[in-house]
């Protein structure tokens, strides 16, 4: 019988060297493998990874073709298949390694007579089972050396509360960004919900089954940041773990890296990050092997990166790489109509958690709605929890609110010079136009869409309020 194409291409010839599959002879076969619910991994007798299908890539959180031609050790140093390749003793069918408890592995030798051409590993998912007590939807990132970390996306777009035009616009742009593969830069004040947007974008993206790996650039000490991002080889430096460590970039294989507070990243690390984003390869600290990586990138900052570039504190080329899709998360003071929705949401959530049944009066809610909220959404959650814990009354009135609300109420009382309705409406209209222009970054077309009027009407309103620059 003539040897099958797989014996000659996907597994290599007698020397076991990797060669990519030939599309003419194997295209249909590989498409059939990719359609299977079971994961398939094929390894040559020399321990090279020759093929894996889409189901296996999802189970192991790998990018397609990322490890083809690599030694099995790059996937898992402790894989049971390594023992068979050394000794020829075939392990029995057994549950997969701990990080894949929901699957079973079966080893199937591929032979041509007495010659071993390779081994196929068939991974059968056990659908519906819980993994160590976690829901089926919670996934785990497994590093190439077997290190495990659980980083599911905790939020979706349903968790982003608000119906103001500015937030609706930001949410819609985020949905569009989730479907593409471009880098996303989230810009906004502290506490506005940039992390929620990052999680929601990942959860709605094609990478949702792979991990979302957060990196807080402001919290990791400068001297440890490189090791955290790139990982390190065994014995790379004094105090290093003897087995080495998998870096965040490797753990994010096939998923998303969330670079929070990117404006705080040291300048020397920015150059190394840029190299990874351009070349899609990483080398561990103290290591010599270059590993391919594939992941999406979401960065977030509350800093003005353009000003940091002008000051020489942020690389312009890195900004261009990250700022492909810019999404501005509006502060709460620019969307006061969302305050009642947020208060209601968190009030119900915290009431259930704390077992408290207090209610907020209409007058107290009015004061909360008129507050400037310098801490944004994070401050709303803080105030709601504080009121439920510290106030024992059944109905909470304005006098029960924290001192900052009483003070702001006094200082902002004369916001309008009179109760003359046309004057009050005109001032409110002007402030709305200004907010829309800031949210749209000066684009009058986008600002008109946010306000909900035609372009001609928007220009006329700008002219009435003296907001058009003079010729």
Please tell me how large the radius of gyration is: 28 Å
Largest sheet: 5 strands, antiparallel
CATH classification, class level of the largest domain: Alpha Beta
User: What is the arithmetic mean of pLDDT?
Assistant: 79
Helical content, roughly? 25-40%
How much of the residues is beta strand, in percent? 15-25%
Q: What coarse outline follows from CA principal-axis ratios? A: elongated
Q: Which residues sit in consecutive blocks of at least 5 with pLDDT less than 50?
A: 1-25, 93-101, 127-150, 409-418
Looking at the structure, the CATH topology of the largest domain is: Rossmann fold
Strand tally: 18
Q: How widely separated are the two ends?
A: 85 Å
Strand order of the largest sheet: 2-1-5-4-3
Structure commentary:
The chain is an alpha/beta fold and about 475 residues long. It has 4 domains: about 130 residues, PAS domain (Beta-Lactamase, 2-Layer Sandwich); about 170 residues, 3-Layer(aba) Sandwich (Rossmann fold), CATH 3.40.50; about 80 residues, Helicase, Ruva Protein, domain 3 (Orthogonal Bundle), CATH 1.10.8; about 45 residues, Arc Repressor Mutant, subunit A (Orthogonal Bundle), CATH 1.10.10. Helix content is about 40%, strand content about 15%. The protein has a 5-stranded antiparallel β-sheet with strand order 2-1-5-4-3. Strand 13 and strand 14 form a beta hairpin. Helix 12 packs across helix 14. The chain is elongated. The N terminus is likely disordered.
């Amino acid at each position: 019988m003539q040897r099958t194409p797989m014996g000659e291409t996907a597994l290599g010839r007698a020397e076991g060297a990797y060669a990519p599959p030939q599309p003419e002879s194997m295209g249909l076969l590989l498409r059939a493998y990719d359609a299977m619910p079971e994961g398939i991994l094929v390894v040559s007798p020399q321990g090279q990874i020759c093929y894996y299908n889409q189901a296996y890539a999802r189970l192991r959180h790998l990018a397609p073709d990322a490890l083809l031609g690599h030694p099995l050790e790059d996937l898992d140093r402790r894989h049971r298949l390594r023992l068979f390749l050394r000794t020829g003793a075939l392990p029995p069918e057994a549950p997969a390694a701990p990080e894949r408890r929901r699957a079973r592995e079966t080893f199937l030798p591929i032979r041509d007579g007495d010659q071993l051409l390779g081994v196929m590993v068939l991974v059968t998912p056990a659908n519906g089972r819980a993994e160590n007590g976690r829901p089926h939807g919670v996934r785990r990132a497994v590093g190439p050396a077997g290190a495990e970390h659980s980083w599911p996306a905790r939020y979706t777009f349903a968790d982003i509360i608000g119906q103001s035009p500015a937030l609706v616009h930001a949410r819609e742009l985020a949905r569009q960004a989730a479907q593409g593969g471009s880098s996303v830069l989230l810009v906004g004040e502290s506490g506005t919900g940039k992390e929620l947007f990052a999680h929601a974008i990942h959860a709605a993206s094609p990478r949702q089954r792979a991990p979302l790996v957060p990196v807080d650039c402001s919290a990791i000490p400068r001297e440890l940041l490189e090791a955290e991002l790139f990982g390190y080889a065994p014995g790379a430096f004094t105090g290093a773990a003897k087995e080495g460590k998998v870096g965040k970039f490797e753990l994010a294989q096939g998923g998303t890296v969330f670079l929070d507070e990117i404006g705080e990243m040291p300048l020397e690390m920015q150059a190394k990050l840029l190299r990874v984003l351009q070349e899609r390869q990483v080398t561990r600290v103290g290591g010599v092997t270059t590993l391919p990586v594939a992941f999406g990138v979401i960065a977030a900052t509350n800093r003005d990166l353009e000003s940091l570039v002008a000051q020489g504190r942020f690389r312009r080329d890195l900004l261009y790489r990250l700022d492909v899709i810019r999404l501005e998360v509006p502060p709460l003071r620019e969307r006061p109509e969302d305050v009642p929705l947020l208060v209601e949401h968190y009030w119900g959530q915290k009431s259930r958690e704390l077992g408290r049944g207090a209610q907020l009066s209409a007058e107290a809610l009015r004061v909360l709605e008129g507050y400037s909220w310098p801490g944004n959404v994070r401050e709303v959650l803080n105030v709601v929890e504080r009121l439920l814990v510290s106030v024992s009354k059944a109905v909470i009135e304005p006098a029960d609110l924290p001192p900052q609300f009483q003070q702001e109420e006094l200082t902002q009382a004369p916001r309008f010079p009179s109760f003359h309705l046309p004057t009050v409406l005109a001032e409110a209209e002007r402030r709305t136009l200004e907010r829309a222009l800031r949210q749209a970054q000066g684009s009058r077309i986008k600002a008109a869409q946010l306000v909900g009027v035609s372009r001609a009407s928007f220009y006329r309103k700008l002219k009435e309020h003296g907001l058009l620059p003079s010729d």
